[in-house]
Amino acid sequence: MDSRISALADQLLLVERELRLMGLWATEPPPAEAMASQQPFCVDTMDLEAWLQWIFLPRMRQLLQSGGTLPTSSGIRAMAEERFSGTAKGLLAALGEFDRLIGEAG
């Protein structure tokens, strides 16, 4: 078992918590067409916070729960820094730690 699973799961919880605290947690999902985007981070169809909530968090949780192969790198914090211009310190910290953990060997 990958030793990072628990720490990654904690970071996902922190990402959700920060989105909720920032008032960016939506009750309705984006349209199916938006979620079907082939662009990285669905930049052509949704805001980063929607992508985090509706694509990133569910996919990562599913990978962690199923024991699937984790990505070997992540650059989500850089995208978040661009989107939030450094104003979302808690969210940026959680995403930065997620990126760091993903970059470590299992």
CATH superfamily: YqcC-like
Number of continuous helical runs:
5
Which overall shape is indicated by the principal axes computed on the Cα atoms?
globular
The ordered H/E elements are HHHHH
* CATH level-two architecture: Up-down Bundle
Whole-number radius of gyration?
13 Å
Report how far the terminal alpha carbons are from each other. 8 Å
Tell me the number of strands: 0
Question: How much beta, percentage-wise?
Answer: under 5%
What portion of residues is helical? Answer: 55-70%
- Could you give a short account of the major beta sheet? none
Return residue spans where pLDDT drops below 50 for at least 5 consecutive residues.
none
The CATH topology comes to de novo design (two linked rop proteins)
CATH class term? Mainly Alpha
